[in-house]
Amino acid sequence: MTQASTPQAQIGVTGLAVMGANLARNLARNGFVTAVHNRSYAKTEHLIAEHGTDGSFVPSESARDFVDSLQSPRTIIIMVKAGGPTDAVIDELTPLLAEGDILIDGGNALFTDTIRREKALRDKGIHFVGCGISGGEEGALNGPSIMPGGSVESYATLGPILEKISAHVDGDPCCTHIGTDGAGHFVKMVHNGIEYADMQLIAEAYDLLRRGLKLEPARIAEIFRDWNDGELDSYLIEITAEVLSQTDARTGGPLVDVIVDAAGMKGTGTWTVQNALDLAIPVSGIAEAVFARGLSSQAAQRAAAVGNLPGPDGVIETDDVDDFVEDVRQALYASKIVAYAQGLDLIAAGAQQYGWQIDLGAVARIWRGGCIIRAAFLNRITEAYAADSGPEPVAGADQDGADAADGGTSHQSLLLAPYFTEAIGKAQESWRFAIAQATFAGVPVPGFSAALAYYDGLRSARLPAALIQGQRDFFGAHTYRRTDAEGAFHTLWSGDRSEIEA
Prior knowledge:
This protein is an alpha/beta fold. The protein is 50% helix and 9% strand. Strand 2 (34-37), helix 2 (41-51) and strand 3 form a beta-alpha-beta unit.
């Protein structure tokens, strides 16, 4: 359709690579008159030629015509690469907009960039919404999980549109207003970090079955399909079975055996770990997943080490293969729970740091459909935060005498919700056994191991951090706190070793 024959558009999308084009098609399919624009008009023409029958589109060649085709308040979704390209589009559109208009960044932007952009545009009277969109190309077209930030006022206009085009589970939209300014992109960042951890844990389970038990990929695919009918029901488990059952057309063997074992990454997992470090929140499962991808890409070092570094041959000896397969399943489930608990801890800490009011139960609810980490057990997380016996805020520790390395959050761990406490209790013996067998066989399981170490650390009445504080006070006079007195203290280590109040 042409602009002359089409009603003014209700929403616009600029940036028509696959994600942007699919999102525009989703909007049009759901009855919204959708303005479309791309820096290269050829992509706009291609979208209309191939998919113009999906609904009502208003194509524009120039940014001016694109903005003019929109109803007021103008609502525009930017779908371009994060960083400089996003700033360039904002700079191009801003002079064409009026007070009350809404710009939405639907890319994987760093949340601090979103905070900066939101403030700058707010000063001009324009609403800026950092919006996490998860689900890949398929989700963008058929219903993603959507995590919008921005002002409450902007969500009044934007919310009904995004909720309609999002995935739906049990009749509920997988979209909610996350919080102000950068909250949406922060939550999407953590979502991606959990995705890293989830994928690494699945890969470790596969490695134990493939390398450890010498099972063929087709057999492991069937095991994953069985797992997907139970507690581990999830999109990632489902597609794992598909990948493992794929035959390579060139060799006739399993495709997974001819894929180079070096995993790529685009940065969101790294951002998650960096921000967790800044907030002093342990996300060891996510960190190990990032590091494992890094190690996988160290091709020269790995090639030099093979055959030269001594160790076991990776074979796991067992009298009952099926029993060990069950041990691996339980280890995967327990480790997965820890990864989600750590991610939610980070979201709680981010909310505390940046003044966001984030409903963690709602976050889990909108992750149930559309997104990459969608899983049946997210229902249990939503229920845990809704229940009277679920995780509740707890008072923060007294930080007298603490330094900049001390941090944390008053948010209580998901692991203390009765369902998850019981689930890990049931899995614990298998979890420990699988890790022990992997260690003796020389099969690396950094994700499983980090999750268990975190769990054991969390449940410990006392940790060796007391010794670390003593060491820090010895060499740097960093002080320490006592269990039996208030305040901060220092021992005169180089003097008479008497204790003084700091």
